[in-house]
């Protein structure tokens, strides 16, 4: 069985949980708490799984994988149905671009280690930290909205009428945006797609509140 090292609030792990569920792949969830014990992801035992000390990690037999998008593409190539990336090269590039808008443009500025550095090393206040978070999420989602809105390739989901890797990335980011009180009035297409996704059992089962390690969210 696949083994996923995960944390219920990690948006990167959330992406992989969605992908696994969409493909109907059973997996063992191994919680790695990012706060308790000084951060369990920083322990020597976990770094033997993932030297970067980050979640998620996916273990498939003797293979240990890291980085959520690399994991999702591995799953798509190894367990190809249903596909999370289109067959056409141009369509694949579009789906990857939307996914990377989240994973490379929004998320790196707002992940836990950046927020802890802002309040710890730089002495930024809690209010200033939250303003930082909201600014970059709102700006990033506006760019995604512009990409999606009015594009005939956008359907019920980010690309067409079946969820793709792009949706696996978008929904966790919208979840975090709501958690931090971001203004989302300017991204109606994003919200429509998020609502469509969250009606699907695969997304419901992957949600933070439905994880075995869930705490108050």
Task: Give the topology.
Blueprint: E1 2-6, H1 11-22, E2 27-31, H2 44-47, E3 57-60, E4 63-66, H3 68-78, H4 89-106, H5 112-119, H6 126-148, H7 165-179, H8 188-197, H9 201-206
Parallel strand pairs: 1-2
Antiparallel strand pairs: 1-3, 3-4
Helix pairs in contact: 1-3, 1-7, 4-6, 4-7, 7-8
Question: Beta-sheet strand percentage?
Answer: 5-15%
* pLDDT < 50 stretches: none
Sheet bearing the most strands, described? 4 strands, mixed
Shape: globular
Strand arrangement, major sheet: 2-1-3-4
Label this structure with key terms.
alpha+beta; single chain; Glutaredoxin; 217 residues; Glutathione S-transferase Yfyf (Class Pi), Chain A, domain 2; globular; 8% strand; 4-stranded mixed β-sheet
Description:
The chain is of the alpha+beta class. It has 2 domains: 2-82, Glutaredoxin; 89-203, Glutathione S-transferase Yfyf (Class Pi), Chain A, domain 2. 49% of the residues lie in helices and 8% in strands. It has 9 helices and 4 strands, in the order βαβαββααααααα. It has helices spanning 11-22, 44-47, 68-78, 89-106, 112-119, 126-148, 165-179, 188-197, 201-206; strands spanning 2-6, 27-31, 57-60, 63-66. The protein has a 4-stranded mixed beta sheet with strand order 2-1-3-4, covered by helices on one side. Helix 1 crosses helix 7, helix 4 packs antiparallel against helix 6 (126-148) and helix 4 packs parallel to helix 7 (165-179). It is globular and about 45 Å long. 36% of the residues are buried. The mean pLDDT is 90.
